[in-house]
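Hi everyone,

Forwarding the result from last night's run.
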Amino acid sequence: MKKKKKVKISHFEKFLYTITILLICVSPLIVVFEKSTLSKMNYEVEKLKNKISTQEKENESLQMKINELASLENIQKVIQEEGLIYDNDSIKNIN
């Protein structure tokens, strides 16, 4: 019968094997975590884009209301309601 030789593994090799196995096991978890984080960030970006869009629409609506209130017709209506008189002859231009 032949005796089998026992292969001795050094401490350094054991360390390398352990590190390699750990990396193989942990790397998929890291990838999943990173994808999850990216997905969450994309969701937040979309939420902010939606909020910005809503705010822009509200700003446009308010700007239209400002323009409507500042119109000459509206000013003349307020002048008449307050009992004031718009007299173009009494307006003086200073240059």
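The chain has one domain: 11-85.

Cheers,
N.
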